[in-house]
Structure formats: structure tokens, C-alpha cells
Amino acid sequence: MNRISLLIVIWAILLTSSIASGADIPYLTGRVTDNAQILTAETNRMLTDSLKAHEMRTSNQIAVLTISTLNGENIEDYAVSVFKEWKLGQKSKDNGILIIVVPDDKRMRIEVGYGLEGTLTDLLASRIIQNVMTPKFKVKDYNGGIIDGVSAVIKVLEDGTLPDMGGNEGADAGKSGFSNIEPADMPITERILFGCFIFGIIGLFTVVGIISPGAGWFLYLFLIPFWAMFPIVVVGTKGALICLITYLIAFPTVKLFLSRTEWYKKAKTGILTKSHTSIGGFTFSGGSSGGSWSSGSSSSFSGGGGSSGGGGSSGSW
Known about the structure:
Elements: H1 3-21, E1 32-34, H2 41-58, E2 61-66, H3 75-86, E3 96-102, E4 107-112, H4 122-138, H5 142-159, H6 168-173, H7 188-211, H8 216-222, H9 224-229, H10 232-258, H11 262-274, E5 276-279, E6 282-285, E7 292-294, E8 311-316
Parallel strand pairs: 1-2, 2-3
Antiparallel strand pairs: 3-4, 4-8, 5-6, 6-7
Helix pairs in contact: 2-5, 4-5, 7-8, 7-10
């Protein structure tokens, strides 16, 4: 191996190890670990006293960590690693909470221990991030944002309610239960993958319903609840509502248009006379059950039984 090749290999190894290492986990030096140096001494003291008093009252252990950057590491994975290393909360209760703020990456997360997931739910953690902390962070008021965020977490744990957030709670109260459903908090790459999976499945059945002379209108009604709920995971409540309205209008419009074409009329005739027809490689059959379809091969769909490593919510500003 010549000298240039050796240098390239060494450089690649160093680069790979640098990327893989991500951000280091700091030592637990107190209830507030301000590695990013974005908090004043007064804020640090105030937060420490508040968290200490809360722990004395409830035994819940809350820690705040600020770190300048994660060097490309996923904040969810990093939070789990810090939580595990710091061992927050009592072993018998798992009642620890970690609040991480990464100013250079403009990311934050509230990681919740197993024992407090029923009190500080993912939805409440998300609301604290979006409605309490994010507005302050957008104007670079890190001290105010973290103080308000910690106060909101404590209020939820002790009183079971969120603090007044400038009318946001009143606005939420006037909405229906479905409007409070928020999209799953996940990185953009996972959101894209889930979107391809969800829209791929219900989209396939939608296309089948549109081109099927037999079971088409049955599938139209059957898929309404799927188009109403499944997209929430990827695009949120408003996005799901747009998807549903689009489906309700587009499906019958396209189907009625296709029903006037010759190949559709021919396929419909085949259903009526021979009880089956073939369109684009798919075989459609009619019958008392309303129809069926196949592509010459069978497939199965089943769920697997996965688990989550920890509750909480992430956000950005």
C-alpha cells in the first residue's frame, strides 16, 4: 500500500470514528448542568433551588442539561444515553425527568422516566415545548424559556395541569377531542418512512377501488376511517383532514370519469357476464360478497409487538 492510500485509509478511519462518537455525555455535577453556558448565575441558582424543593416534596428528580451541539447525533438517542448514564429518579419509582437544550442545533427534548409517563404524557411534554419554551427560544431568551419550561413541568407533576399559556389552553379547550391529536414526535427520516408505508397501503387500496368495477364503492366507504386517522401520524390533524377531504372528493370524481371510458365499460361487462375480468394484471371478480381482487400472488400484513425506550417529546425552533 503506497503512502497516499495509507493516508486516505487513516483519514477515513478518523472521520468515521469522529462521526460515530457524537456528543460526549457530561458528568452529573448538579441539578443544572450548563455546558453550553447560556444561563446566568442567577438563573442557575433559581432553577437549582426550585428543582431541589420539588424533589423534597415529591421525590421526583428533574435535571437540566444544556450542550452546544450534538455533532449530528439524534437528540432522542442522546437523551436516552444521558438518562441511563445519570440514572435519574429513584430505582423503585423511575421518577426522573431530563430537560435537554441544544442551542446551536436549535433542538430540545423532555425525556420522561417510566414512572412519570402517565402524569407527564408525551402530549403534555410536546405542549410545554411548543407553547412555553419555543417562543422564548426563538428570541434567544434561553433563561426565560428554561425557567418557564421547568416551572411548567413541575406544575404538571404536582397539580396535573399546565400553566396559563396566553390563551392557548382556552383555545384548545374549545376544540374537539380529535383536534388535540398531534403527529408522532419523530425525526424527518422516520416520518418519511412511515409516510411511505401508510400512504402506500391505503393508496394501493384506493387505486384498486377506483379501477374496480365490482367492489369499488364498497372500498370507497371502507377506506374513509383509514384516510381519516392513519395520516395523523405523519402530517398531523390538519394534514389528515386535508387528506380525508381530498379523498372524499377525488375518489368518486376519478371513478365517475373512468366509468365513461371503453376499457372500464368492457371490464364491467366482464363482471356481469363472466363474474370476473382482468385489468392491468389484476383479476377482479364479482359476487355476493361485493367483489375481491388479486395479482396472482398472496401477501400478508401483520403487526410485530415493538416497544418504546422512553416517553417524552422533542422540538425545534
